[in-house]
UniProtKB/TrEMBL annotation:
Species annotation: Algoriphagus machipongonensis
Family, as annotated: Belongs to the GTP-binding SRP family. FtsY subfamily.
UniProt cross-references to PROSITE patterns, sorted A to Z: SRP54
Name of the molecule in the record: Signal recognition particle receptor FtsY
Gene name of the encoded protein: ftsY
Record's catalysed reaction(s): GTP + H2O = GDP + phosphate + H(+)
HAMAP family in the record: FtsY (MF_00920)
């Protein structure tokens, strides 16, 4: 188990803080819904449904959660309103587990996958390059050798930003500058990863959704050149979404799952928003595990997603 192999007090505090707006929003509405009521009845469930939908959990996922709670109420005959938040936590945590979201213990890589190649996708402005920088830092802190590839060559800012992150974290960045072939950057990054026996290679890619066919072709080409060195690369395709955009993040997830196979999610910018419920909805609707969440500006505020701790922070009174 690595140094991140437990959920420390500091991490829990920053998670609580990062989800504070979402939690206050949910809890104040939940308190009003149960005021003067001793048991969970139809009216309370109707209120709860509205609370979850307005917290960006999404309609389909909300209906699933409500149905589960209704079943429990019917089975137990009488459910005290004081138990509602406990039941809510249990049912949502169960839902996340069914969506393949497992609690990861540390920044380790699977056996026999060296270098472990992560291709990162997402539209501009979601915090993609920052997420890569923070990821590189966390892998490095866990004792891994990391190489970054600046294959988002359509924006000078993306290339420059990744080089800055590389300097800051102390990891090499493979870059050919702006308006160069993204696949050749990926090729060189993976080649260097193999040659130097790096543990992790993280490739940034362009995020222009308005030309779906071009994006699909480009990502396909990047994959093919990687596979010249590592036949099963990339081992992970990480989609970065901005949690503060709420329902817009759903749309982005939908668009990206059409153009490439997404295997994991990073949901960023949860600290500045009351839309934390979007994490639950996206995980449920797309059946893609949430692997990382961003709950603040600090390097360590990109956390491995822990569903129980997340649900506890989201549905707990501060």
């Amino acid at each position: 188990m690595g140094i991140f192999g437990f959920f420390s007090k500091d991490k829990k505090e920053s998670l609580d803080q990062g989800l504070q707006k979402s939690s206050e929003n949910i809890f104040s509405k939940l308190s009003k819904a149960v005021v003067g009521k001793s048991k969970v009845d139809e009216e309370v469930l109707d209120e709860l449904e509205e609370i979850l939908i307005t917290s960006d959990v999404g309609v389909d996922t909300t209906i699933k959660v409500i149905n589960r709670i209704e079943e429990r109420v019917a089975r137990d005959k009488y459910v005290n309103t004081e138990e509602l938040d406990k039941i809510l936590k249990e049912e949502i945590s169960g839902l996340l587990e069914e969506n393949n979201t497992q609690d990861l213990l540390d920044f380790d890589i699977p056996e026999g996958k060296k270098p472990y190649v992560i291709m990162v996708v997402g539209v501009n402005g979601v915090g993609k390059t920052t997420t890569i920088g923070k990821l590189a830092n966390l892998f490095k802190s866990a004792g891994k050798n990391v190489i970054l590839g600046a294959a988002d060559t359509f924006r000078a800012a993306a290339v420059d930003q990744l080089i800055l992150w590389g300097d800051r974290v102390g990891v090499p960045v493979i870059s050919h500058g702006m308006n160069t072939d993204p696949a050749s950057v990926a090729f060189d990054a993976v080649k260097q990863g193999v040659d130097t026996q790096a543990d992790v290679v993280i490739i940034d890619t362009a995020g222009r959704l308005h030309t779906k066919v071009n994006l699909m072709n480009e990502l396909g080409k990047i994959k093919r050149v990687m596979q010249k060195f590592i036949p099963d690369a990339p081992h992970e395709i990480l989609l970065v979404l901005d949690g503060s955009t709420g329902q817009n993040a759903f749309i982005q997830a939908k668009e990206f799952t059409k153009v490439t196979e997404i295997t994991s999610l990073a949901i960023t910018k949860l600290d500045g928003t009351a839309k934390g419920g979007v994490v639950i909805g996206i995980s449920d609707q797309f059946k893609i595990p949430v692997k990382y969440i961003g709950v603040g500006e600090k390097m360590t505020d990109l956390q491995l997603f822990n569903r129980k701790e997340f649900v506890d922070s989201l549905f707990s009174k501060k």
